[in-house]
Write a structure and sequence with these properties.
This protein is α/β, with parallel strands linked by helices. Helix 3 (57-77) runs parallel beside helix 4 (102-117). It has helices at residues 16-21, 36-39, 57-77, 102-117, 153-162, 183-188; strands at residues 7-10, 25-28, 44-47, 82-86, 122-127, 129-131, 138-142, 150-152, 172-178, 181-182. It is built from 6 helices and 10 strands, in the order E-H-E-H-E-H-E-H-E-E-E-E-H-E-E-H. The two termini are 30 Å apart. Helix content is 32%, strand content 22%. The protein has a single domain, classed as 3-Layer(aba) Sandwich (Rossmann fold), CATH 3.40.50.
């Protein structure tokens, strides 16, 4: 990752092996606990944790909402420069989401709203349905896309990393799907949405 020395926060020791293979330092911690040591000396964060679609509503609230808020608050206290949030398409209006997905979207919206209100520099990325497809480096992006669709996890990861830069999509939220526009151009084309 050019310009960054990544540090991955993991829940379990057994997750460490995959990061050892790519020579990324890890820190075992619980999103719902004390994260002081995790954020110490870190200047940018990507929040990409998720409880999963088959998780009971309470676990979704614990991870996607309260875990995110806990990390936001502790990162802010540590003097973080930028917080990049992986959210979800539809988080701006959870009640319009599909049945069964509403608790997840509510949790995402609560965390997103907290981030926008806490005076940290942020970017909130709201992808459509995630796939294991190949990286294309091409997306469709807008504050609200008014359509459903999918996007590869690899393209979402690229958008998250690109959003770490201080001059990119600062203090903006936007939805993304697979598309025809280069990621860099799509992000540059996002206007102010507040």
């Amino acid at each position: 990752m050019p310009g960054y020395t990544p540090l991955a926060m993991i829940r379990k020791e057994e997750q460490q092996a995959i990061f050892d293979l790519i020579e990324v330092e890890t820190f075992v911690a619980d999103l719902e606990g004390d994260l002081t040591q995790v954020v110490k000396g870190v200047d940018r964060v990507i929040f990409a944790a998720g409880s999963g679609s088959k998780t009971p509503p309470q676990k979704t609230i614990d991870v996607d909402q309260n875990g995110a808020i806990n990390l936001i608050d502790q990162a802010k206290a540590a003097g973080l420069k930028k917080f990049v949030m992986l959210s979800s398409m539809g988080a701006h209006n959870p009640s319009a989401g599909p049945d069964g997905l509403q608790p997840y979207l509510e949790a995402k919206k609560t965390a997103d709203d907290h981030l926008m209100a806490c005076f940290l520099n942020y970017t909130i990325v709201r992808p459509g349905r995630l796939t294991d497809g190949e990286k294309t480096n091409k997306i469709k992006a807008a504050p609200v896309l008014e359509m459903h669709g999918e996007i590869s996890r690899k393209d979402v990861a690229q958008v998250l990393v690109d959003s770490l830069q201080p001059d990119k999509v600062q203090n903006k939220f936007f939805e993304i799907l697979s598309g025809e526009t280069d990621i860099e151009i799509a992000l540059a084309g996002l206007g102010n949405n507040h």
